[in-house]
Amino acid sequence: GAGVSQSPSNKVTEKGKDVELRCDPISGHTALYWYRQSLGQGLEFLIYFQGNSAPDKSGLPSDRFSAERTGGSVSTLTIQRTQQEDSAVYLCASRIKNTEAFFGQGTRLTVV
Amino acid sequence: KQEVTQIPAALSVPEGENLVLNCSFTDSAIYNLQWFRQDPGKGLTSLLLIQSSQREQTSGRLNASLDKSSGRSTLYIAASQPGDSATYLCAVEYNFNKFYFGSGTKLNVKP
Question: Are B15 and B77 in contact (CB under 8 A)?
């Protein structure tokens, strides 16, 4: 596709359930980032992939959060045992190193 | 800690005005600085990327400048239009691992 695609666009889940968020980066983009944006807050870095490896996962807030990337393309962010404080918009971005980053439209996660 | 500050937090101007948004950062050893806009409920749209060796970049009515020594960048918007209304975000990177974002300037251009 022409841009970064994220799915689902909206997700409502019950507290304690696991969720998977998907990011399809722009074809050929080797770098992929996950950020989250809580209501009224700034953008919080979660994890960075270069190819399939994650040299920087320092932003993952707890061990309930994990992410993987396969084939140097699609990435999934998994949140286990969701809590209400996980409610946020999760944004994915991709780029070729040292060029501009392009963001997807985000997944709005609501934990009830 | 890498801090990025954007001033003002909000700005309201009449259509047609030229305006300047400011971004400052604490560590001048940056690699790149990128400006984005975010419309309500949407993702981020890239506006301009300035690499550390560059002083400015231009795209249409937008001009972004970078002064590493003083830790500042400005985004100049010429002849503002109601469609420019959005939140403008400045993002700084010191390596390729992550961007550090400011909290944004919410711009309202009144018809």
Answer: no
> For tokens 């991709």, what's the residue?
A94
Spatial contact of B10 and B104, defined as CB atoms under 8 Å apart = no
Cα-Cα-Cα-Cα dihedral sign, residues A37, B23, B93, A3: positive
Determine the residue among B44, B95, B105 to mutate to test chain A binding: the one whose Cβ has the most chain A Cβ atoms within 10 Å. Answer: B44
A54 interfaces chain B, CB cutoff of 8 Å: no
Residue B92 to residue B101: CA distance in whole angstroms:
7
Q: Does A76 touch chain B (CB under 8 A)?
A: no
Among candidates B43, B51, B96 on the partner chain, residue whose Cβ is nearest the Cβ of A31: B96
Phi then psi dihedrals of residue B12, to 5 deg? -125, 125
| C-alpha angle B41-B89-A2 in degrees, rounded to nearest 5 | 60
- CB-hemisphere CA count at 13 Å for A92? 30
Q: Could you read off the pLDDT of B39-98 as tens digits, one per residue? A: 998 899 999 999 989 999 999 999 999 999 999 999 999 999 999 999 999 999 988 788
Q: How far apart are CA B93 and CA B34, in angstroms?
A: 9
3-state SS assignment for residue B43: coil
- Min Cα–Cα distance to chain A from B37, Å: 11
Give the Cα separation of B95 and B29 in Å (integer).
10
